[in-house]
């Protein structure tokens, strides 16, 4: 019997922690290098996600204990962004009202696409409790971790406002950044979920400005 006849039904490429397992390589022939590259990148992203999640979840500074829970409370059901829109509409004149409408419209699109489409198509488990302190990981939703809907809504509103009122958009960017940080800190999301949510928010804000510019401009 030749030594090759007793080979296992899978082979590994790479070295150490960077190895990629290829199932059934004897039967399927050589694995195309693009597929190997994708597998290697996915494995590296997985390790980075876990490492960053573990590090951020370990923050126990006084500011994190006081500020992030308040940010999480304000982000629930987008209460913070509705309050910001009301303030803009009441004090910002016509431009402020346009900015508020644009921000809310972008936020609605971002939430619909992230929560109604992507979470249903791309199921991903939340970060495991081994990466997050138990008291933070107990109260997490059961829906897919990918993408972060909170981040998508925050970025969409902030960018929509910033296009018309840059100063107000800069102010909104502070809680938006804190919300993205909080989602990783509490173990609700991996960093890649937050990045994907930010991309959804940017695309939603761009779409609203691109397709609804004239209707928004009629707001007085």
Explain what this protein looks like in three dimensions:
The protein has 220 residues and is mainly alpha-helical. Helix content is 69%, strand content 4%. The protein has helices at 25-28, 33-57, 62-75, 79-91, 93-121, 134-137, 149-164, 166-185, 191-211, 213-217; strands at 10-13, 20-23. Strand 1 and strand 2 (20-23) form a beta hairpin.
Number of strands: 2
**Overall shape:** globular
Mean pLDDT level: 81
Largest sheet: 2 strands, antiparallel
- Strand adjacency order, main sheet: 1-2
Order of helices and strands: EEHHHHHHHHHH
Catalogue the unreliable spans: 1-27, 215-220
Summarize this, please?
This protein is mainly α and 220 residues long. The chain has helices at 25-28, 33-57, 62-75, 79-91, 93-121, 134-137, 149-164, 166-185, 191-211, 213-217, and strands at 10-13, 20-23. It has 10 helices and 2 strands.
Record the SSE blueprint.
Blueprint: E1 10-13, E2 20-23, H1 25-28, H2 33-57, H3 62-75, H4 79-91, H5 93-121, H6 134-137, H7 149-164, H8 166-185, H9 191-211, H10 213-217
Antiparallel strand pairs: 1-2
Helix pairs in contact: 3-8, 4-5, 5-7, 5-9, 7-8, 7-9
